[in-house]
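Please produce the structure of this protein holding NAP.
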Amino acid sequence: MICIPITARYRQHVLKEIILACLKAGCIELRMDLIEEASLSEMISAVRKTSASIPIIVTCRNQEEASLTDRFKNRLLMQKKSPGEKMRILEDAIQLGADYIDIELAEGSQRIKALRNICARRGGRTKIIISYHNLQKTPSLSSLKKIFHQMVDEKADVVKIVTFARSPDDNLKVLGLMPYAKKNAQKIIAFCLGDKGRISRVSAEFMGSMLSFAALDYGAESASGQITFDELKIVNEALYGVKKNIAYPVSSQTENQSQNYVLLGNPTHQSMSPLMHNAALTELGVAGRYNAFCVSDLNAALQGMRGMNIRGASVTIPFKVEAMEMLDDIDDDALKIGAINTIVNNNGRLFGYNTDWRGLLTTIKQAMTIRGKKFVIIGAGGTARAALFAVLKEGGHPIIVNRSKEKGEILAKIFGCPFYELRDIKKIKAHCLINTTPIGMYPNTDQSPVDADAIFGYEYVMDVIYNPLKTKILRDAERAGCRILSGLDMFVHQGAEQIILWTGREPNRLMMKAAVEKMLSQD
Ligand code: NAP
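Below is the modeled complex.
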């Protein structure tokens, strides 16, 4: 199993690294000594959302224990953690259900025992890796065996021995620990640091090491001599025919999986998603295609998706709520919204997400600040829920306006905000008006959910409809002097978030928008 350490500094980068790493690796290490901004709970839930089965190691080293590349040395110095802080981080990791915590043997029996007791109180879910790092040299094999036994005496679930290779022979000493650990029925991770230690990194797993570490990309190496995941994979395939012999819990099966994607809805003929997604996939160099399927039996369609190993799906009207019952897991945000629009097929397990709210949020945030502002949201369907969630999450104040009183009131209760009937919309004053109903959509392009004189006074008016590009409500809004926000931007951003979930890569959003714009302006 290959473990990718997460080494980014800032929250946004950390979360992005986590998604990318989960798509590739069999295990994730959160380097709490290098990560600055993101909270442990947020990171652990980000890993779990991306892959429920991937093991998480939480590690917090100090300078003496970390063989860092120059890039990270200063960062570690700047945010040096006291022994108390390190303990608190590891305790939190246990409480949050991390699979492994990593503590240095040098931290002493008392601290190791304290952590072991917390693990036991939490049912033993979290296992303890006890580490020994020698950043100067590789001691003799007999010395390493003594250290090994000290760790066994401390009841290590996994022993980790990492030394600096001054000569190629040092690799042999460390690799020699592997059969020894096997004889003692002890799980072990062992390899050498430095350029001369690389050979141990590519051999360790095949000699019996529980895992080997590889960087997500160049520049993200967490230790000297570490190679990238892609390099290690190529070496493994060349040397060991890795696809047969080694367990990559996520990546190998992902590899066997097609890179094809589908749209599930009814009807789907009007959708621009195939055009937009295929443009994005082609530009990213992904071999697969995205096709629309008009579905009458959603359950059968999902079974087909599993059977054919389709990597991901968009879900549209009328299945956004119904699909939730049929999936293996649902992202927390989607649960709160009560609808999904995206499925990720992770080796036969289907995970549901909602990217509509992100698409809407990005569109609004590019134009205005949400915090403290009032938003009138017309509609009480799935898109209205996504809009409510997005506005509330950013500290805005939504007001629901809907044709049917009953549906509007239910939603108002769930999201804790005021409700007005559509006919009373002129009684409200707010900064931004968002139409989430289908009124005004092609071919009914002369329709609007509100009279033109109801629009005066809004700073911004947004329509989630993108066909036509400028709906009647947006045309009225421009005449009333309001700034307008397009449904196309929301459509592009929600689609881009889907591509990220499926491929782990950021698509070219401008190009996606241009592809749809071109098609719509031809009509
Ligand atoms: P939905 O769940 O069916 O909800 C539609 C809402 O519109 C309902 O609350 C309904 O009110 C209201 N409505 C429908 N017809 C009406 C009418 N003639 N007069 C007054 N109210 C009416 O639909 P949805 O999934 O939220 O989708 C809504 C729209 O958003 C669709 O056009 C969809 O294409 C668009 N959308 C765009 C994007 C994007 O990326 N740009 C993403 C998602 C959705 P009642 O409660 O009274 O029935």
